[in-house]
């Protein structure tokens, strides 16, 4: 029946990345900046040059992704957490990964590129700073086990614009 509740709810995007992509202007604006997988691998290799071997590049990739998601651009907080490590061996390894992260972010900027995590961060900032308004009453979060501070910042930014919205979390 066309009288179903979900038929009356406007839909903006099906994923947080899709939502962020639309907020920032879609394919014509963000698409040109979004880094491809092969470009990303080249930048990662350059960021880690002379620091690690190619066999441990996947560890650096995971570190960068998690750092972006959990610290949402506040890498000074990450640096403090690394310095607070008791185990000196772990601290040195984390410092090395942190340097690769900083190199990676510098190279992205130098190459005028962005990745999905940065898109999420910029979308949350745009919603907050530009005071965008949305007619949406419901925010559905699936795969909550994969949720991060980055996703939370986007949801909170949206919620700040639609204070009476309802949030449903699954997973």
Describe the strand arrangement of the main beta sheet, using strand numbers.
Answer: 1-2
- Percent of residues in beta strands? under 5%
What kind of sheet is the major sheet?
2 strands, parallel
Helix content: 55-70%
Shape: globular
Mean pLDDT: 83
Beginning-to-end CA distance, first to last residue: 29 Å
Which structural category do the helix and sheet elements fall into?
mainly alpha
Low-confidence stretches: none
Number of helices: 8
Gyration radius, rounded: 19 Å
| Number of distinct beta strands | 2
H/E element order: HHHHHHHEHE
Spell out the key features of this protein.
mainly alpha, single chain, globular
What's the short version?
With 171 residues, this protein is mainly alpha-helical. It has helices at residues 16-23, 27-31, 37-47, 57-71, 75-83, 88-110, 116-129, 149-161; strands at residues 138-141, 166-169.
Please characterize this protein's 3D structure:
With 171 residues, the protein is mainly alpha-helical. It is built from eight helices and two strands. The chain has a two-stranded parallel ribbon with strand order 1-2. Strand 1, helix 8 and strand 2 form a beta-alpha-beta unit. Helix 4 packs across helix 6, helix 5 packs antiparallel against helix 6 and helix 7 packs parallel to helix 8. The radius of gyration is 19 Å and the shape is globular.
């Amino acid at each position: 029946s066309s009288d179903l509740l979900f038929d009356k709810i406007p839909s903006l995007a099906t994923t947080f990345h899709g939502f962020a992509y639309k907020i920032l202007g879609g394919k014509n604006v963000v698409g040109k900046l979004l880094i491809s997988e092969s470009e990303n691998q080249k930048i990662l290799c350059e960021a880690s040059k002379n620091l690690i071997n190619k066999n441990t590049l996947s560890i650096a990739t995971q570190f960068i992704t998690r750092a972006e998601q959990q610290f949402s651009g506040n890498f000074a907080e990450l640096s403090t957490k690394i310095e607070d490590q008791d185990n000196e061996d772990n601290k040195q390894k984390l410092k090395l990964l942190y340097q690769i992260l900083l190199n990676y972010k510098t190279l992205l900027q130098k190459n005028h590129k962005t990745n999905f995590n940065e898109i999420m961060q910029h979308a949350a900032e745009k919603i907050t700073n530009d005071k965008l308004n949305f007619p949406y009453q419901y925010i559905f979060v699936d795969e909550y086990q994969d949720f991060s501070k980055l996703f939370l910042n986007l949801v909170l930014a949206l919620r700040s614009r639609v204070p009476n919205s309802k949030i449903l979390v699954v997973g």
